[in-house]
Design brief:
493 residues; mainly alpha; two-stranded antiparallel ribbon; 22 helices
């Protein structure tokens, strides 16, 4: 625990089965067991690839699978680097038969560098295997951080619940997407936020944002803590590194201009009515929620189609409203809520900044779960069990929010292979699952939407006048008066 936060004796104690960290471990472990059973069922008895039910189709192109892929799979977001950067072409200026890339220059550098190393080693699968190995290493950083220097059993368990069998890890590897490389930077943001090491937060934001530009929105956590200078440094540094990255490639500054145009058009590249690939954007999540709640069946196909058209046309307005509300809430209560809450709200700003958000962006949740399992404000406590950032504070208004958060994240991270055929034709039509390859693609958006709303409401409830009961000293334990740490002043460092 940091020097600025007082311990709360009425909260669940480390090692207790009532800690939120222990609850998450128990739930996530049970769900992983069910998920492995679902994969066995789908692969053995339905003769379908579990990865295609959970994520993307197997034949994703951009390589000769027999020589450059694995089996029939090409790991398309990596393999396309050969097509985009062949000869004098690059991803933003005239690559034959390809659209302009919405990735920034620095975002392509890991794939391009490892691809060229692979070619120097003889080509074939060498570059791919190097890329997958480095990607997996980045994705496992949160699990290793949670389990290291703790009980001997903690590392295997953390590997189970936020490690290689987690849905986001499998999805990012399956796509070969560079989103894997932002995970260590996001963990640096989380640890820096918990320990109030603002230089760590700035470095983490800049490192993530030059790979994925929308990650720059994480700087809202600096605004919430009134770190204006750090906010300016992160913004300027991100802009300078991004522009410098384009200067390394040919056709500068045309490549930079073309990228900005492609980035502006990215949000609307997929209709919210399209069930595949999985889209976690706000508009699509609303449609999925309508479908699962039976509202779409009630209002009929014409009204549902009109709703889809409206969301397609007004997606930017909807996203902007969600970002504005979240920013205001974080501004008001960012210093008074647990680290996982503020971190998750900031990440929702990232997820809801675009109308098209593919499933591999769930990797951002790995970092949130990591701080739920281990408090970033201090070192691990060997032999004392699971106790994370949610367990430092236990205000009465936060228990329901914590419960929703733990359940929602566990469900969103579990790779459940459940094809719609299991439900029968009637339910498939009722829930608008035609064209959806698996239930995971349908429920994840609504689950995160519920979590988003719950966090907003839970955070707003922390805004209380000084005389309200929720802000009075907690009854003493052992004769001491204990104040809710959320109400303690935050010193300026």
């Amino acid at each position: 625990m940091s020097d600025t936060e007082a311990p709360n004796p009425v909260a669940a104690q480390p090692g207790s089965a009532r800690t939120w960290a222990a609850r998450y471990v128990s739930l996530a472990t049970a769900l992983v067991v069910v998920a492995l059973g679902s994969m066995w069922y789908v692969g053995s008895y339905m003769l379908r690839a579990p990865s295609a039910v959970i994520d993307f189709l197997l034949a994703d192109g951009w390589c000769a699978p027999q020589a450059e892929g694995i089996g029939v799979h090409c790991f398309g977001d990596y393999s396309v680097v050969n097509a985009w950067f062949a000869g004098d072409h690059d991803a933003w200026n005239g690559a034959p038969g390809l659209p302009t890339s919405n990735y920034p220059a620095v975002g392509w550098m890991p794939a391009l560098a490892l691809n060229r190393i692979g070619l120097a080693l003889g080509g074939g699968r060498a570059g791919l295997l190097l890329y997958l190995a480095v990607s997996l290493g980045c994705l496992l950083v949160p699990a290793i951080w949670v389990g290291r220097r703790s009980r001997s059993a903690d590392l295997p368990v953390s590997m189970l619940v936020i490690g290689p069998v987690c849905a986001p890890v499998l999805m990012a590897i399956d796509r070969g997407n560079s989103v894997a490389f932002i995970v260590p930077f996001l963990l640096l943001v989380a640890v820096g936020l918990g320990r109030q090491r603002w230089s760590w937060v700035v470095v983490g934001i800049v490192g993530a944002a030059v790979l994925k530009p929308q990650m720059a929105l994480l700087a809202i956590v600096l605004l919430a803590h009134r770190r204006y200078r750090d906010l300016a440094v992160s913004a300027v540094s991100t802009a300078l590194v991004t522009v410098a990255g384009f200067a390394v490639f040919p056709h500068f500054p045309a490549n930079l201009i073309n990228w900005l145009k492609a980035l502006a058009a990215y949000s609307g590249m997929q209709s919210v009515g399209t069930p595949y690939p999985t889209n976690l954007g706000l508009g699509r999540s609303l449609i999925s929620t309508m479908d699962l709640a039976g509202v779409s069946h009630l209002i009929g196909p014409a009204s549902r189609a009109a709703t889809v058209l409206w969301l397609d046309a007004n997606g930017s307005l909807l996203n902007g409203a969600a970002l504005l509300v979240t920013a205001v809430v974080l501004w008001l209560v960012g210093r008074r809520i647990p680290t996982p809450w503020s971190l998750m709200l900031a990440l929702f700003m990232v997820l809801y900044s675009s109308s098209t958000v593919y499933s591999y962006y769930l990797v951002v949740l790995l970092v949130v779960v990591a701080v739920i399992l281990r408090d970033p404000a201090g070192p691990a406590h060997p032999g004392r069990g699971w106790s994370g950032a949610l367990d430092d504070r236990e205000p009465a208004v936060g228990r329901a929010t914590n419960a929703v958060m733990v359940v929602a994240l566990a469900l969103a991270l579990t790779p459940m292979a459940l094809p719609p055929e299991l439900l029968g034709d009637r339910l498939t039509r009722f829930w608008q699952l035609t064209g959806v390859s698996g239930a995971f693609q349908t429920w994840t958006g609504p689950i995160l939407l519920v979590l988003f709303g719950t966090l907003l409401v839970g955070s707003v409830r922390r805004i209380r006048p000084a005389g309200r009961p929720g802000n009075r000293p907690t009854p003493p334990v052992g004769g001491a008066t204990v104040t809710d740490p959320a109400d303690l002043p935050t010193p300026v460092s």
